[in-house]
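Example pasted here:
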Amino acid sequence: MKIKIASSFLKIACFVAVILLFSSCSVVKYSQEINTLRSLAASDKKITKYLSSQEDNFKKLLKDYESKDLKEGLSKKTILSRYGDPVLEWNISALERGYSYKFLYRYPTRYFSSDKIYLYFDLNNKLAKIDYIPQEDL
């Protein structure tokens, strides 16, 4: 009886050892692909967090525009610290109406269906002009 139990246990142990051997081989074989998927997942979380931050910043900018807290004369540095990076930024030639930079703020994932705010900065990097374009006017 002991021999029969030992034989059964040995068969089960061999079976488990073979399964573990093959599963570890597949892990080693696909480790690069697994690491790539892990990196993509981490990158996706960062992108989602950034887009959420951009959307929150634009909502704040819209609120400040509507409440008249967004005023000409604010520095470019202040605008960037309050509202984050614009969706687009243009470096305008000094000859074009005295502006040096133009920023576009909108919802980051709504390309054609978003309110837009264009901010123009003078040669001293102070906010000189604000253009608000509501979504329904587009």
